[in-house]
């Protein structure tokens, strides 16, 4: 169907009844969707909806007799003023009048606007005189911007011309003031998004690099040059023809994304939320298995906003010079090739990068070597962009570039601003092919908050900060290690390659290790250093997995881990890489609990390596030492020795092996003071140790105690991260839980006493717990995680079965798992609880009714019951 056949202009105003208007809008919406799916030019579709809306509003204006007022004008402002309307975009209107409308005119205006609302149009409107517009615009840059791009739809031209005249730069927001205000507005908007475009759920319009950044360029150009379109900026010399086409290409993709989003959700929202991404990716034609369409779409989005941000930065800097005259006068020579303009580095010869590609690396080495440099001068940035596009191969193929790159990696400030700018301006992608493949590489999950390249950049920045004095307080062990490393560049290279093979299929650690080894040898590192870097890449997840999912108080676990690490140098490198990696994955992943686990694993492994792997620890000596230190603490607290001995005689040797002297003394003191043996003792450490609140429960053992505690903690919105489940020789539970608030902080304040009281009451009731089966969150509903139950071989010393559970993170999961253990009569000895975005990867140490490892038949039955329990709500 021809779009012209849908035009409201074909109807007389009297025919524009409410049902007829709804029919017109529905037919237009259907036509737009059909043409969008057919691949029509997005600009044509956006303009077509605007034009049809002009015609409908003109007819309705006449239908309400508003055309009879000779001084009244209907004006489009905002995006509608630019003639751009997406399927559900706001229709911003200014009803412009001379003087104050009388009651009759107000009624007609009110009827007109009410009809627009009845049509379910997203209308924003104001009724103002020219003088009122100017007064409001003087105070608010957003209103001023709307007035500057206002467009007459229908009504009195003279009234609209008066507004146009009143908003000329010589009377209203001169271009200098307008530019500064818009730049400040953009900076404030970027801060609201933490100055990053790389969010899992970005805002297409307002995120850095989004449509607003393109509009900011247009607004400033329009104000200063009178350029109504981006193409007119080319004639003013502020955009090259190639830059114009690049900006247009970026705008068109973002428009398609926004158009598809509006079509998918049927309302004006620009947030690309998880539950919308699949539908939008499908509408845009991205294909593939599983989450591939979403990841392809988001990769294109991240690459697009990066290009927009780069052009926006360059053009605003050029505007700064043209409009404000801020051309740095304090020019200082740095080298025969580079000079300093204020605090920006500038190239002297405009053909330097094209003539000599290695000069690109020399530019960034100068940034590393001169801490007074804060950025790159606009013309130099333009030349850098041009040279980057003209490269016929990767820079790493040139020996002179390889030498300069290693100079950068070894420089104390090489991973500071220099690295950030190389990442921002695409130089890392131009340097070696592996990086170019991960630019914008997104992983559709709730764990990785950034694309792979941005995550790696943040990891390198963390390592860089570990050497700064501030790290003494935030990451003291990392500070100590990184400041004494003899070859810190090896850690930088391992960080650079740790995720380089993501998105290629296969094991990214193995593939990345191969790439790292080849890269190091290509860059003339000796074989031992190259192998160390490759080992770190291959095993970069080893320490976090061991700390968070294995029992690090088991000597076998420490011995196995130490055997893989082999020496203290590798341990130092691996610890620093692990902490930096966790902190760079998302903004909420790191907490004191994870920090404590990693430190304890580090020092236990260091001790094992110094003792020698051929000399395993004598467990009896460790138990006696823990008892000796705990006894000293208790004696210091005036606890009679005569009471300690009979109490400890009730505890198993395993209890003393798996608790610290401080924990043993704390437990003992409260048990000895607890005289109601039938009533549970519940205590929470007032001074959180090990990074979390330590919850201790002492009570007669009873069925499904773990499940009941888990249900009670779930009701209090607390997360279990670790559990040691033990029973005394005379049948009393000695259970320790590490619990944290949802934000990763320990429990504090009034919550402490309330939690103790609630748990005491729960444990008095032997009935099975009431598990809250709540629907998953909006984000979780978009993910499918297949429930997996795997079993590891029994641990040599403890003779227990280790069960690994992978499942979708749902409310009440631990309580449900605990109930399964109870129904099968299994004994739970320890639990490691790890939540990775939308999925859990939990480990449970179990024995059967006879306190033996589970046999094959028992494992099969347990697997069936766990899968049945977790999949009963239809989510797998």
UniProtKB/TrEMBL annotation:
Catalytic function, reaction form: [protein-PII]-L-tyrosine + UTP = [protein-PII]-uridylyl-L-tyrosine + diphosphate; [protein-PII]-uridylyl-L-tyrosine + H2O = [protein-PII]-L-tyrosine + UMP + H(+); guanosine 3',5'-bis(diphosphate) + H2O = GDP + diphosphate + H(+)
Report the InterPro entries cross-referenced here.
Answer: ACT-like_dom_sf, ACT_dom, HD/PDEase_dom, HD_domain, NT_sf, PII_UdlTrfase/GS_AdlTrfase, Polymerase_NTP_transf_dom, UTase/UR
- According to the entry, every stretch annotated as the ACT domain falls at 694-774, 802-876
Superkingdom of this protein's organism: Bacteria
A Pfam family matched by this chain, by name?
Answer: NTP_transf_2
Q: What is its EC number?
A: 2.7.7.59, 3.1.4.-
Every HD domain range:
452-574
Q: How might one describe the regulation of this protein's activity?
A: Uridylyltransferase (UTase) activity is inhibited by glutamine, while glutamine activates uridylyl-removing (UR) activity.
Which terms in the Gene Ontology molecular function aspect does this entry carry? nucleotidyltransferase activity
Q: Which UniProt keywords apply?
A: Hydrolase, Magnesium, Multifunctional enzyme, Nucleotidyltransferase, Repeat, Transferase
Mind telling me which SMART domains this protein's record contains?
A: HDc (SM00471)
Per the record, which residues fall in region Uridylyltransferase?
1-333
Q: Which cofactor does it need?
A: Mg(2+)
Write out the domain note. Answer: Has four distinct domains: an N-terminal nucleotidyltransferase (NT) domain responsible for UTase activity, a central HD domain that encodes UR activity, and two C-terminal ACT domains that seem to have a role in glutamine sensing.
| Function noted in UniProt | Modifies, by uridylylation and deuridylylation, the PII regulatory proteins (GlnB and homologs), in response to the nitrogen status of the cell that GlnD senses through the glutamine level. Under low glutamine levels, catalyzes the conversion of the PII proteins and UTP to PII-UMP and PPi, while under higher glutamine levels, GlnD hydrolyzes PII-UMP to PII and UMP (deuridylylation). Thus, controls uridylylation state and activity of the PII proteins, and plays an important role in the regulation of nitrogen metabolism.
Report what the protein is called.
Answer: Bifunctional uridylyltransferase/uridylyl-removing enzyme
Protein's organism: Oceanisphaera sediminis
**Which gene specifies this protein's sequence?**
glnD
């Amino acid at each position: 169907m021809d779009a012209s056949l849908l035009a409201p202009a074909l109807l007389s105003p009297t025919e524009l009844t409410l049902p007829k208007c709804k029919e017109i809008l529905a037919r237009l919406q259907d036509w737009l969707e059909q043409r969008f799916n057919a691949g029509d030019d997005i600009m044509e579709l956006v303009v077509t909806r605007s034009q049809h809306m002009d015609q409908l509003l003109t007819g309705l204006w006449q239908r309400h007799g508003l055309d009879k007022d000779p001084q009244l004008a209907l004006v489009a402002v905002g995006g509608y003023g630019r003639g751009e309307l997406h399927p559900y975009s706001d229709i911003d209107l200014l009803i412009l009048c001379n003087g104050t409308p009388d009651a009759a005119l107000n009624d007609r205006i009110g009827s007109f606007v009410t009809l627009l609302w009845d049509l379910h149009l997203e209308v924003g409107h104001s009724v103002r005189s020219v003088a009122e517009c100017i007064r409001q615009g003087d105070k608010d840059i957003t209103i001023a911007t709307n007035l500057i791009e206002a467009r007459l739809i229908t009504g009195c031209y003279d009234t609209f011309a008066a507004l146009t005249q009143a908003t000329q730069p010589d009377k209203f927001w001169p271009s200098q003031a307008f530019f500064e205000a818009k730049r400040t507005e953009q900076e404030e908007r970027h801060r609201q998004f933490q100055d990053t475009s790389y969010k899992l759920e970005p805002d297409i319009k307002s995120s850095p690099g989004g449509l607003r950044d393109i509009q900011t360029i247009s607004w400033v150009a329009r104000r200063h040059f009178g350029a109504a379109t981006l193409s007119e900026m080319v004639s003013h010399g502020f955009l090259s023809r190639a830059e114009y086409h690049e900006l247009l290409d970026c705008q068109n993709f973002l428009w398609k994304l926004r158009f598809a989003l509006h079509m998918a959700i049927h309302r004006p929202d620009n947030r690309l939320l998880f539950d919308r991404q699949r539908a939008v990716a499908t509408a845009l034609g991205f294909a593939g298995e599983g989450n591939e369409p979403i990841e392809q779409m988001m990769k294109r989005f991240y690459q697009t906003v990066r290009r927009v941000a780069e052009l926006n930065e360059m053009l605003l800097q050029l505007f700064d010079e043209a409009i404000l005259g801020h051309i740095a006068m304090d020019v200082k020579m740095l080298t025969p090739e580079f000079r300093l303009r204020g605090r920006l580095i500038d190239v002297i010869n405009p053909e330097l990068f094209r003539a000599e590609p290695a000069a690109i690396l020399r530019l960034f080495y100068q940034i590393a070597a001169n801490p007074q440099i804060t950025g790159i001068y606009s013309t130099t940035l333009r030349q850098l962009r041009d040279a980057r596009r003209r490269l016929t191969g990767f820079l790493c193929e040139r020996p002179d570039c390889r030498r300069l790159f290693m100079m950068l990696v070894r420089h104390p400030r090489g991973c500071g601003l220099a690295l950030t700018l190389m990442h921002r301006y695409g130089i890392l992608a131009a340097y070696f092919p592996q990086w170019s493949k991960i630019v914008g590489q997104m992983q559709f999950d709730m764990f990785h908050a950034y694309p792979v390249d941005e995550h790696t950049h943040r990891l390198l920045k963390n390592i860089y900060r570990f050497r700064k004095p501030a790290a003494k307080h935030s990451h003291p062990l990392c500070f100590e290690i990184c400041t004494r490393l003899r070859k810190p560049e090896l850690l930088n290279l391992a960080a650079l390659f740790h995720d380089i093979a993501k998105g290629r299929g296969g094991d990214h650690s193995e593939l990345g290790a191969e790439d790292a080894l080849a890269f190091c040898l290509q860059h003339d590192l000796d074989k031992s250093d190259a192998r160390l870097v490759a080992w770190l890449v291959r095993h970069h997840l080893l320490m976090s997995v061991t700390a968070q999912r294995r029992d690090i108080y088991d000597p076998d676990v420490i011995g196995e881990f130490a055997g893989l690490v082999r020496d203290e140098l590798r341990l130092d490198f691996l610890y620093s890489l692990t902490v930096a990696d966790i902190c760079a994955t998302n903004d909420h992943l790191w907490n004191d609990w994870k920090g404590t686990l990693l430190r304890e694993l580090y020092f236990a492994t260091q001790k094992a390596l110094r003792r020698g792997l051929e000399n395993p620890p004598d467990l009896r000596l460790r138990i006696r030492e823990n008892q000796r230190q705990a006894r000293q603490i208790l004696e210091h607290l005036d606890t009679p020795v005569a009471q300690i001995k009979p109490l400890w005689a009730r505890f198993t040797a395993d209890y003393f092996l798996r608790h610290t002297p401080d924990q043993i003394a704390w437990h003992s003191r409260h048990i000895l003071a607890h005289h109601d043996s039938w009533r549970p003792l519940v205590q929470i450490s007032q001074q959180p140790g090990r990074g979390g609140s330590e919850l201790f429960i002492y009570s007669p053992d009873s069925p499904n105690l773990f499940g009941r505690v888990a249900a009670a903690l779930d009701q209090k919105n607390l997360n279990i991260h670790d559990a040691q489940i033990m029973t005394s020789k005379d049948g009393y539970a000695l259970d320790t839980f590490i619990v944290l608030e949802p934000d990763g902080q320990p429990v504090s304040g009034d919550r402490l006493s309330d939690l103790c009281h609630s748990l005491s009451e729960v444990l008095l009731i032997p009935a099975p717990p009431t598990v809250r089966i709540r629907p998953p969150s909006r984000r979780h509903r978009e993910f499918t995680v297949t429930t997996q139950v795997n079993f590891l071989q029994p641990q040599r010393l403890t003779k227990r079965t280790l069960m690994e559970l992978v499942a979708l993170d749902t409310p009440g999961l631990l309580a449900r798992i605990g109930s399964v253990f109870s129904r099968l009569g299994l004994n739970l000895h320890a639990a490691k609880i790890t939540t990775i975005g939308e999925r859990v990867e939990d480990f449970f140490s179990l024995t059967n009714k006879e306190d033996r490892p589970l046999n094959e038949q028992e494992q099969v039955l347990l697997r069936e019951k766990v899968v049945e329990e977790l999949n009963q709500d239809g989510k797998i």
